[in-house]
C-alpha cells in the first residue's frame, strides 16, 4: 500500500495502479472518458486532469492526467484545485462543441457517461457558435445503430474492437476533429463481440438496434440480476423488461466470469423470449385437436397422469437445477433421464469425471485471461462458447505484457504497453482443430486434422511432458515434433491452460486433453483445464445425474411407460428423426413443459408454459462448475410459471407428498441439498429469499421508474398490488432498499452522478469491494480433489484413414444459428449462415463440384441436399456440416456418409 | 571571423544537382566515417557530446545526451535503430530539403557514424512524401555507398554492419513528432506515443531507437573529421556549430543561408535576405517555423541560438523565420497558421483536436468580419488550455506559441477586426 495525498488528505492507494483508478476506488468523483478498467489508460481525452505537486512545499504544481500518473507512494494531487477544475471544464467544453444538444430525446440520455461528466464538471452554457461537424452514419448490420455525430473521439470503440476483441473491420479514419469510427464501407460488423460497443462507448455512437426498436428509458425497465442461457459459460447479464416484453440484455459485471463484456449471441439472444412461438397458455390435445385450457384444468390433467403411475421424466441441460430436481423428485431418481443425446451425455460424464477426479482445475474466464500458454485441442471455442474466446485472446497477450513489465512499463499504461510490444509474437498458443477457427489469428501454430488425429496429437503432447502418459504409435515425425513444441511451451509456462470440448463428439480428444493437463500437474504446474460446454446447465444436469436418454426411448418402445414428462426440451435436437418419431408414436401420454413451441411440443398431449430465463428464478451451473442464480425479471402475461411449480401443483393434485411445503425456491433448494449433497452448495450461490438490506427487499424498479400507476390503466384503473416474490429478495416494485447495494445484486448500476452501466458499476464495485467477501459471484461446485492423481487415460485411437467413397461428417458450430434458443431471436438469425456442407478443395475437385454447387449427403438411410462451401483449411476425407440447424439436427455425428453431386442442377442456389 | 566556414553547404553544387559519391569523397567526404570506425563507439559518442551539438529539429536537445540514453553493451536489446527525421513539414521550413537533395552522402555518412555510436543495426530515413527529388537522390546515394562498402555488411572492413532504408511517409505534419513517426513507420496510425518510455529505451518495434533531425545528422561527419573544438569555434555563442537559417515572407531575397550559430535576426534579415521589399516595413517574425512565438523589431539584435532567443520570449525552432510586414494582416497570418495546425492535429487528445479547430474558426470569423465580443477571451483561454503538459504531444502547445504572442503584440489589430466587423488590411469594398 502506498499513501496518496488527495487535496492534502492521505489515502491508502495501490501503487500498481494509476491515480485515476485509485481515486475512483476510494469512492471519490473524477471525470474521465477514455480510461476503462479493461482497456487501460491511453491519455487521450485529457478529462481526468488533476494538479500534481512534487511535495508539500510545492505550491505551483502542474496539470497531469490522473490516468497516466502512477500512484507512487507519497504522490500528491489535487482534484479540487481551481486550475484542475478549469482545465476539466475546458475539456468538457471542447468535447461538447460538436455534440448534439438533444439529451432529452436522445436514446442514450439517462445512461450517458458524457451527460454525467458534463454535469459533474459544471459545464452549462455553450459558447461555440459555428457549424457543428457532422458525419454520415453507416449501416453496421442489424445489431447496432451508428450515430457518429455524437462521437467525442475517446477511441474506446476501436480499442475494444480491434485491440481487445481482435476485430478488423472497425477503424479510426481521418484526423483532427473529424476522426471517423466506422468501417471502410457500410456493412455488418464482423466481430462476435460487436454489441459491447454500445456499452463501451461513453455516449451513444453505437446503440443496440434491437433495443432501439422497442426503446424505453433505462429507468423505466424492470430488471433483476440474470445469467445468460445461450451457452455453458454463464455470463452475468441484466435483462430489462417493460410492458410485458423483454427489451434488451446488458452486461452485468462479474470479475470472475464475463467481466465487462458479452458475446453477441448472449446480448441479442434475448429476443427468443418475445418470440411469437412462445407458449403462453396450457394446451391440451383431445381427439386430434389442440386447445388452450385453464391452469386449473391443466393441473388436474397433469395430476391424473401422475396418479396413474409408470411415469418417467426427461430432464434438460437448459433447465435450472431446481426444475430438473423437481422432475427427478416427481418421477423418482431411477426414472429420471438426462435429456441429452446419449453421446453428448457420455462426453459430459467423462468431462465431469476428469474434473472431479483429476488434479487439473477448471479456470474461471478471469483465470483464462491470465494463462501464459494455451493449447486448444479439438474445439471451435469462438462458435461454441464465444465469451471464452475473448478471454483466450487476452491470454495470448501475456507475453507482450510480460515484455512490457520487463521494460518497466506499468501494465495499466495500455498505450505504452501496446506501442512497446506492437508486432511481437503472442504467448505460446496452439490450436488443433479439424478446420480453421477464428482464434487462429492469435495462434503461434495450428494443426488441422480429423478428430482422432487431434486426439493422437494430444496424447503425444502428454507423453512428451510425462513419459508415463500413453505413447502414440506410428506418429509421423512432423507431428511428433509439433507435439514436442507444444509440450515444451506448456511446460515452460507458469500458468498453462488446456482447452477442449465436446463439440466434435470425440471421447479420445477429452482423454488426451486430460492427460496433458494431468501431466503438467505432475510437473507441479498449476494447470487449467477448460471445457467448452454448449448448454447453460449441462454441468448442473450432469452433477445431478440421470439415466441416458436412449434408455427412455427403449422403455417407451417396450411399452413400459404410460406417461413421459418432458422438461424444457425438444427431442428432435437430441436424437434422429426415426428414433424421435418412434418414441412419439409409442408414448401414450406426453407432457411437455417448455417456453417455445418446437416439433416435440406440438406432438404433446399436454403442454405447460414455463418461464423464459427472464421469467423464472433458478440456478444454473456453468462449464467452470460455478453455480449462479438467475432471478425472475418480470411476471409474464398468460399462465406461465416455473417448471417446478407446475410439477409441484400436479403432484399435489395427484395426492403425492414429495413436494409438500415447496412454497418458494429456497424450499426446492433445501430439498435438493438433502437429496443430492453434491449440489448442496448451490444454495449459497446467491442470497436467499430472506435476504434483506436494512430490513428491506431490493426493488426491481429504479426510483425513477415512471407510470407505475398508469402502466396497466388500459386494463384497470385500479393500481394492482405488486406481486409477491417468494423466490428471491427482489420486489416487483420501486419500493425497497434505495441505497447502494453490492454490484452483484445491482442489475441496473447507479451511483449518485453516475448513470451509465459500466461507469456506475466501477463506482459500485469499489464502494462495496465487489471482489471481497460478501460479493455474490456464484459458487464453484467442482474443485480438484486433494491427494493422488488418477491414472492416465490409456487408449490412443488409431490413425485416421480417409475412405475412398465416404466422408467423415463432422459438426461445425456457428455463433448464430447453432444454439437452440437463440434460433428464435429473429434479428440475430438474420446473420445466421445458411446450412452448408464444407469440403476440402481436393475433395471438391475429386467430386467435381465447386462453391455453391449442390451435394447430396447420404447418411444412415436419409439423403439431404446441401450447398457446398470450399474450406481450404479442412483436411481431405472430412466434410463438415452446420450443427444445430436443419437438416443435421439430432443426427449423431461424426458419421461416415456418401456424397454425390446433386442430380437436379443448382436449384437450391437459385431458390436461396 | 575572417572567412566564414560553412561545413554543411560548402560542397553544394551551384547547378543544384546532387553531389555524387566521388565528388563528395574528393571533398573530404567519408573521412569522418573512416575516423569514427577507428574509434570505439563510446569515443565517437563522447566526441559528439563534447562538440555541444544540439538537435536542429527545433527542440535543441543535446545530441550526445540523447545518444547516451541508448542501452549499450552485450545485454542491450537488438536490433537497435537510428531514424533520420526527414519529414520536414514545419511551415516556413525548407532547410532539410536542401541538404537532402543537394548533398545526400553527407546525411548518409552522418547516419552511419551516429548508428555506429549507438551500435544500431538498421537505419531509416523517414522522408516527407513530397520530397521526391530527395527520394531519388537518397536512393542513388545509398546504392553508391553500399557499392563502396560504406553500408551493408562489414563497413569499410570495420566489422560493423548497417542496413539503411528510405521510407517515404504518407504525409502528415504529426509524423515529424518522433514517436508518431515511429508509429507510422510500424504501419500504425501516426499518433504520438506516451512518454515515458522514451524511444532511446523503447522505440521502433519496442527496441532502442534514436530519432535525429537531418541537419543534426549532417553535422556529425564534420565533427568527427575536425573535432569538437573546431565545431564549437564555428559559433558566435555558446551553442556550437553553424545553423541553416532561412527567411520567407515579403523580404527581398527569401532563402536559406548557413551562418554561425547565434547570428542575429537583423543580420539574417538585412544582410542575407536583403531587407523588406520596397514600400514595406518589418513588423514581426516567427523565428523558427510556425510553432514559435513572434519576435518584433525590439528583438532583432538578439542572437538566434537555442538559449539567447528564449530571453526574447521565443524559441529558435527550425531557425527558418517567417517575416510579417506592415501591410499583411497578422490575424490573417495567424488564421493561416492555425488552420494548418488544426488540419494537422492527429485527433488523439481533446485540447488539440477540439481546441485548434475552434481557434481556427474564430480567427476565420474575425477575418471575415464576423468576430464577436468575447472571442479574444476564448482565444486567450485556449492558449492556456493547450499549454505545454496539458496535451499529449507538443503539436498544440507549438500551435499556441504564435497565437499567444500574437494576441499580445497585435492586440489592436484583433480589436479592430471585431470592432470594425472587417479585416482592416483588406482593400475597402
Structure description:
- The complex is a heterodimer of chains A (912) and B (429).
- Chain A is of the alpha/beta class and 912 residues long.
- Helices cover 28% and strands 17% of the residues of chain A.
- Chain A has four domains: 2-96, Ubiquitin-like (UB roll), CATH 3.10.20; 283-340 and 540-768, Rossmann fold; 345-534, Dimethylsulfoxide Reductase, domain 2 (3-Layer(aba) Sandwich), CATH 3.40.228; 807-911, Beta Barrel (Barwin-like endoglucanases).
- The longest helix of chain A is centred in the middle third of the chain and has 16 residues, at 342-357.
- The model of chain A is unreliable at 767-773 (pLDDT under 50).
- Chain B has three domains: 21-233, 3-Layer(aba) Sandwich (Rossmann fold), CATH 3.40.50; 242-325, Ubiquitin-like (UB roll); 330-420, de novo design (two linked rop proteins).
- Chain B is built from 16 helices and nine strands.
- Chain B is globular and about 75 Å long.
- The mean pLDDT of chain B is 95.
Number of domains as seen in the coordinates of chain B: 3
The CATH superfamily of the largest domain in chain B is known as: NADH-ubiquinone oxidoreductase 51kDa subunit
Ranges of chain A where pLDDT stays below 50 over 5 or more residues in a row are 767-773
Strand order of the largest sheet of chain A: 15-14-25-24-23-16-17
- The count of helical stretches of chain B stands at 16
What can be said about the biggest beta sheet of chain B?
A: 5 strands, mixed
Based on the structure, what is the oligomeric state of the protein chains?
heterodimer
What's the total count of β strands of chain B? 9
What is the CA-based Rg of chain B, rounded? 22 Å
CATH topology of the largest domain in chain A: Rossmann fold
Query: CATH class of the largest domain in chain A, please?
Result: Alpha Beta
Global Rg of chain A: 28 Å
Helix content of chain A: 25-40%
Tally of DSSP β-strands of chain A: 36
pLDDT < 50 stretches of chain B: none
Percent of sequence in beta strands of chain A: 15-25%
The gross shape of chain A turns out to be: globular
